[in-house]
Amino acid sequence: MSLQRSGSLHADPAGPRPAGGSRRPTAAHGAPDFASSLPRAFHTSSHAHLVALRRAFSREQAVSGQALARALGRSRTAVWKGIEQLRQLGYRLEGSPRRGYRLLEIPDIPFPWEVELVRRGRFGCPLTYLFEVGSTNDEARRLALQGAPEGTVVVADRQLRGRGRRGREWLSPPGGLWFSVVLRPQVCPSRAGLLAMAAGLAVLRAASSLAPAAPLQLKWPNDVLAGEGGKLAGVLVELEGDHERIRHAVAGIGINMQDVSPPGGRWEPDRPVPVGLARFGCSASRAQVLAAVLWELEQLYDALHRTPEAVVGELERCLAWKGQAVSVQMDRYCVHGRLRGLDPATGALVLEGPDGRLTTVTAGDVSLRPGAGSATEEG
Ligand code: BT5
Question: Which of 47, 240, 272, 276 could be 256's S-S partner, Cβ–Cβ 3.0 to 4.6 Å?
């Protein structure tokens, strides 16, 4: 029998029933029916026993209690407690005195132990999973200020105050992939724009490998577009440091796994509509998607330090609207022009006016501008 990965959870009737009544996500979105006694947060280090237990279950055969105790280096009682913990969290485990335990169903939740099973590089360890948080960027910043190592990840099922750029709201309902990575880049702050673009490219690479049919493109400076007018993901990089050195950066990444419904039933006109990865035939779990993005991010991040021009080349190849007439809305100006590409040193957007003059834009919102382009500024 093969393991099932459930979107919704089916608590094992043999296991203890959680009491419920907490403010955490409900079973419909992949998180368990909670007991207030369940922890709100799970860390790689404080849940090392579950990491070991889950690793012992990675094959589909039954495992004896004795073998599990050996794998954990702990007593049979500790194994039993771990099994009960997993059951409370939505895992379906069959136990038989003769054959041992068999894992039948895994909830689609990026717990640290699930990510540990599929993680390939340095990024993603340590990892904190939260059922609910204000913003994962705030939590990751807090950890960064306490000295958390590069690659530390905070991931949440739901954000109550998810944010985009310029104070915009980022809708983060249960079931999406909302996470932040602590980075300590050795690059000049003027190149920080490339970090956000590299994070977008990491999502594009990972999503393309998991859902090859997805028509993905990068929209400068931080969006991953899917098809006409769809937004699969957004990136918010927040820096701490001074004009000479970045002390740390927090790369916040939001990926829609399912389509997101608009608040009040309507999306703002002229803004991309949130579309989920599932729409393109992706059947990967959130832990798998997270691990894939973290791996790509790590490769691109390392490349940014060694061979930034190669990263910029790939960014340009994936850039939406190249050669087309666009407008870039900044705080006080709107610039129009033909989108030519990226400044290789900073990742700024390069526009070309009808006279061939190039204009470089470091921040703003790009939109398509049907008709002829001219590099002009409007107040
Ligand atoms: C972004 O901003 O696209 C950056 C989003 C970053 C979100 C991550 S989630 C983890 C971490 N924690 C946080 O609090 N944030 C980061 P921007 O380019 O400003 O786009 C914001 C706009 O996207 C909104 O004004 C909406 O129009 C639209 N939007 C809101 N929620 C969306 C969603 N779930 N999917 C697609 N578009 C959305």
Answer: 276
